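Renewal narrative, Specific Aim 1. Our central claim is that a sequence can be written position by position from structural information alone. The example that follows is taken directly from our test logs and has not been curated for this report. It begins with the structure tokens describing the chain, in the order in which they were read.
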């Protein structure tokens, strides 16, 4: 539904203010929808249509019940696309529509300019619709149950990608060598027949031939190096039918599209919140809307004990960066100053804050954002802490307020988007065509039921036994699934 004349006038004013602040966003198209359509779009991950699968229906049912019972309400929905599409719920008050518009322009600016989104598909709406059409075609041809079962397997491993691969060259270019080159024997030095045994000793020739055979066998080992993009490995080597390959490639392509959003959740929401706050207080609000705006804004930035609110952490960190660079609270002189009172009053009047946050918005993701700009002073001012569950008390309790521990905990939870590191080590384990995976243990064990279900689904794709090396109770463990039963073999204590 098109916007009403009133909302369209508001939109033009909000856009004008956003541009005046230097935001550079895609052309942004707003659509007015009812709550039912908004929940449907949200269940599809923000897209008007996707391929058919029960998980979308489950998400829609959950959102619909949450809205009906007054437990949750979706205020904004925006898609990383060119042009950028955003949705307004028609039942929202005018002040909420203004806030959503300002928030969306912040997101659109982030999508367009943040480096981690630079390799994403900017025509994602068309691509998702095409993916849906292809899957429906396979359902018609192969049956709904067969396609759904295969989708279940693929979706269970959709996180097993390498999110940094669009920016890093992982593989060597193939060499233009002749196939018969590997079959050539070791070269001998030309000699007279009676001198051959001295110039080309038999034991030397045999050792060189053995070395050549070992190098040739090593070249045939795959993958040559541990492969983090498990989906790509399966696409290249699993015995899949053509329609199955296409579906797996769809899941992989969509996983890479969504990956930067998981990598920049704190920054993205913080940036959008910073700008909706700035824009809304720039003659966008009328007097009668101030209280409602303050109430809804504070609700967005509310903090629940023991939880990280990405909106709150992101906006406060951007504000802190702006303040520090405005006052010159950075550099060698500031870092080496030990006078607390001097640090408190420090203000060189540089006015570089706004320029700096635009720079930060362009080059960082959540990990580098936290690592570079989370300071001890910020942690203290925001009253941050680490927590753990106390079994004796039956509740969560504060365990530490130490800056380094808080920062390390944040970085640990953000690494690899909070997912376990899984690599393919061998696609021909024991020379029997078995798949050998390894979990890079970082101190948190895998959930065994999840690991077993994942192995079962990978086995369905690979068609041969699948093995996963992991750690349990400080012991190296090999979990295997051959298609019918699971086996666990303890490989010894960790060193």
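The sequence written for that structure reads:
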């Amino acid at each position: 539904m098109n916007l009403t004349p009133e909302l369209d006038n508001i939109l033009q004013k909000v856009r004008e203010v956003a541009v005046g602040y230097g935001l550079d966003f895609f052309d942004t198209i707003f659509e007015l929808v009812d709550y039912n359509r908004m929940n449907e779009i949200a269940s599809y991950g923000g897209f008007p249509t996707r391929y058919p699968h029960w998980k979308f229906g489950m998400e829609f049912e959950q959102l619909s019940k949450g809205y009906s019972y007054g437990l949750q309400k979706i205020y904004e929905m925006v898609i990383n696309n060119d042009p950028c599409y955003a949705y307004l719920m028609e039942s929202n008050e005018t002040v909420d529509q203004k806030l959503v518009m300002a928030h969306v322009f912040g997101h659109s600016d982030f999508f367009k300019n943040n480096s981690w989104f630079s390799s994403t598909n900017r025509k994602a709406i068309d691509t998702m619709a095409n993916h849906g059409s292809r899957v429906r075609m396979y359902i018609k041809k192969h049956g709904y149950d067969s396609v759904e079962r295969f989708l279940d397997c693929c979706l269970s491993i959709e996180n097993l990608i390498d999110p940094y691969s669009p920016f890093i060259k992982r593989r060597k270019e193939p060499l233009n060598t002749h196939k018969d080159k590997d079959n050539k024997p070791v070269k001998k030095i030309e000699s007279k027949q009676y001198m051959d045994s001295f110039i080309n000793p038999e034991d030397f020739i045999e050792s060189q031939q053995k070395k050549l055979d070992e190098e040739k066998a090593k070249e045939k080992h795959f993958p040559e190096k541990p492969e983090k993009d498990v989906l790509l490995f399966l696409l290249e080597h699993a015995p899949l039918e053509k329609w199955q390959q296409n579906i797996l490639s769809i899941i992989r392509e969509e996983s890479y599209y969504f990956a930067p959003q998981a990598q920049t959740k704190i920054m993205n929401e913080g940036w959008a919140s910073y700008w909706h706050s700035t824009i809304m207080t720039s003659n966008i609000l009328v007097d009668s809307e101030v209280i409602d705006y303050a109430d809804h804004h504070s609700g967005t930035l509310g903090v629940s004990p023991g939880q990280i609110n990405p909106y709150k952490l992101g906006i406060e960190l951007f504000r802190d960066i702006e303040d520090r660079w405005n006052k010159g609270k950075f550099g060698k002189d500031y870092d080496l100053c030990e006078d607390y009172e001097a640090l408190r009053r420090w203000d060189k009047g540089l006015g570089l804050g706004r320029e700096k946050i635009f720079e930060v918005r362009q080059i960082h993701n959540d990990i580098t954002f936290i690592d570079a700009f989370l300071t001890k002073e910020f942690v203290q001012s925001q009253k941050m802490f680490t927590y753990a569950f106390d079994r004796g008390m039956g509740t969560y309790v504060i365990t530490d307020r130490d800056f380094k521990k808080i920062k390390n905990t944040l970085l640990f939870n953000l690494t690899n988007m909070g997912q376990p590191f899984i690599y393919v080590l061998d696609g021909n384990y024991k020379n029997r065509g078995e798949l050998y995976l390894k979990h890079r243990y970082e101190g948190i064990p895998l959930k065994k039921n999840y690991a077993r279900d994942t192995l079962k689904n990978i086995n369905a794709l690979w068609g041969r036994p699948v093995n996963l090396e992991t750690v349990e109770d400080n012991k190296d463990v090999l979990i295997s699934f051959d298609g019918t039963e699971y086996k666990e073999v303890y490989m010894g204590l960790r060193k």
